[in-house]
Design goal:
- With about 130 residues, the chain is an all-beta fold.
- It has strands spanning about 1-5, 10-15, 20-25, 35-40, 45-50, 60, 70-75, 80-85, 90-100, 115, 120-125.
- Strands 2, 4, 5, 6, 9, 10 and 11 form a 7-stranded mixed beta sheet that branches. A 4-stranded antiparallel beta sheet has the order 1-3-8-7, with no helix packed on it.
- The radius of gyration is 13 Å and the shape is globular.
- The model has no long low-confidence stretch (mean pLDDT about 95).
Length: about 130
């Protein structure tokens, strides 16, 4: 099992920045592809960004490219999502997730490929 706890959400004005953190524990968390997803009210949970277990490969949703950056510190078992130039449409609950299998080399965007989820952290961007 991998346990995930997100933090860093909050209320920010449009154009502002936030950094989300996801602390992982349990099985060797550093061996997993990690992803960030978000879910707005009444909408499906969608992919935001993901990073390979080594940190050498990343993937982003088109809607956040150039504004968000994902990184990880395996020594701290923590994954980060730096969010810049936030827009009201970024408002959602943000979830951290760990890949279904360890040591996979492909960074995937489907929720079905992630087996471990945090409880989520709310991000609200005001206009």
């Amino acid at each position: 099992q991998v346990q995930l706890v997100e933090s860093g959400g909050g209320l920010v004005q449009a154009g502002g920045s936030l950094r989300l953190s996801c602390a992982a524990s349990g099985r060797t968390a550093s061996n997993y592809v990690m992803g960030w997803f978000r879910q707005a009210p009444g909408k499906e949970r969608v992919f935001v960004a993901a990073i390979s277990w080594s940190g050498g490969s990343t993937r982003y949703a088109d809607s956040v490219k150039g504004r968000f950056g994902i990184s990880r510190d395996n020594a701290k078992n923590t994954v980060y999502l730096q969010m810049n130039n936030l827009k009201p449409e970024d408002t959602a609950v943000y979830y951290c997730a760990a890949d279904r299998y360890s040591l996979r080399t492909v960074v995937r965007a489907s929720t079905a490929e992630y087996n471990y989820w945090g409880q989520g952290t709310q991000v609200t961007v005001s206009s």
